[in-house]
User: What shape does this take?
Amino acid sequence: MPELLPPEPFPEQASREQILRTRFAPSPTGYLHVGNALSAYYCRQWAKAHDAPLLLRIEDIDSHRCRAEFSTAIIEDLQWLGIAWHGDIRYQSQHLDTYRQALKKLRHMQVIYPCFCTRREIQQEIIHAALAPHDEDGIPPYPGTCRQLAEEGEKNKRQRNIDANTPFAWRLDVERALEITGPLNWREKNWNNKNTQTITVNTAMPDPVIGRKDIGISYHLAVVVDDAAQRISHVIRGEDLRPSTGLHRLLQALLNLPSPVYIHHPLLCDTSGERLAKRNHAPTLRKLRTNGISADTLHRALLPDNMQRPAPWIGLSDLAKIQE
Ligand SMILES: [Zn+2]
Assistant: This one.
């Protein structure tokens, strides 16, 4: 076990004063759609109910998929929805050094390791090892191939790969990380009944990618750094992100960052109960606008019973009828 550096204050870590604040954090990979609008409404509702600021963060670390024009469009669409935010917008692309510094800290702690596997190799290894092929805790399965590369006998293999400039991702060694942190919990509040639960981090999650091969960092790393930097007390986000919360809690503990309360809101579904997302043609807010739908009509259609469960999405033509 390497000697650990003493915990040091994270450069952007604010004081832990108990100020209530939340954030809305879209990614500019396309135009905002009705599902994003629902999430923004939930964030605003919580902020209003607690007289707390709602902050805006643009999650644009992925330079391959994010575009500046979509960032501009997000701002226009939020204004159309009537969602106001507090203070300056935080653009992740302006804080890449901060995320790299966090990654460096994890390297010094020896809880991450380079993974040279291609997607295809991982797939083959999963079949070979008869592992479950589905995601666990929001993390794709990984057989741990590269974890032991620096152990005795394999030392040269890792170094050889690095010397040959073989591209690699950084993976978190979950077992080693948990040895350092000990057992962890996070606080989860139910949107509807307001009960707070303490949830234990799953110790059996697969080793996740913390620094991607292509961009060197990852969503998981950036999000925990940003929530601390923006002093977010309550993270309000869709239920689809609940499985990643254990990983986020683990990263917070390793990086000595405070852990917010998590509230995962219900997602928008169509009338057959299927989740509405960009890929199954959730209409964009722009499309609604050009069809003469008002933001008020959209709000009434999404949340008719005052912010409890969202109503099933009725589709654009039925929405137009309500508008008339
Ligand atoms: Zn690997």
Summary: The chain has two domains: 18-93+268-316, 95-223.
